[in-house]
Amino acid sequence: MNIEKMVEIGLLFEQYKELLTEKQREMVSLYYEEDYSLGEISENLGVSRQGVYDTLKRSEKILREYENKLHLVAKLKEQEKFLKSIREKVVDIKEDLLHNRDCANLIPKLENIEEICRELLK
Amino acid sequence: MNIEKMVEIGLLFEQYKELLTEKQREMVSLYYEEDYSLGEISENLGVSRQGVYDTLKRSEKILREYENKLHLVAKLKEQEKFLKSIREKVVDIKEDLLHNRDCANLIPKLENIEEICRELLK
């Protein structure tokens, strides 16, 4: 399977899986998360290969449509970019503080901020 | 109209409006955002009052169902809580830094972090 597509559908699935039917959710999970083949899914669920294929195609379409409307994956990527930026600035400030004994006590407080930012992305 | 419900639907609408039909979106906006009465919406859109009422009720149900599955409003409230916490800690650290001339130059860097956190919530 195409790695890029696996990553793309994986991210979409993480955000929007609750909006799929149980059957769609199961097939997408088996195919994209557990790397089952169409044949294996077909055998395991007692559905024709064509049926599995059609359900996967339909699910991918649905997931992309939700992303077009809600942009949750795009927003998450933006947030991760900002978080990385905050971490770099915190490291930067910490290095400055380490050179000044009077201010070194502020480092735990800074680390606290960094921790909260990490929570923000959960 | 009940203020609590107005706030609740307002928040849900902000997150999930793109998942409503255009007609649903228009009516919810007129009723909850622009404070139109059922009668006014009915007159403006050429729909019976009952029709407006039914569409609003259906839309509210849809919005709540999406929140039950995606929890976007709940997550946003959590994030705002964390952001407030970061701001308080930044103010706290800034006060400490103001007492030490050597470290006062770090204040702009801290404010930078706070600014990024604000971006995180957009």
From TrEMBL, chains A, B:
GO terms for molecular function: DNA binding. It comes from the Bacteria. InterPro entries: RNA_pol_sigma_r3/r4-like (IPR013324), UPF0122 (IPR007394), UPF0122_fam_protein (IPR054831), WH-like_DNA-bd_sf (IPR036388). Keywords: DNA-binding. SUPFAM superfamilies: Sigma3 and sigma4 domains of RNA polymerase sigma factors (SSF88659). Might take part in the signal recognition particle (SRP) pathway. This is inferred from the conservation of its genetic proximity to ftsY/ffh. May be a regulatory protein. PANTHER family: UPF0122 PROTEIN CBO2450/CLC_2298, UPF0122 PROTEIN YLXM. Belongs to the UPF0122 family. This is UPF0122 protein IBLFYP30_00013. It comes from Intestinibacter bartlettii.
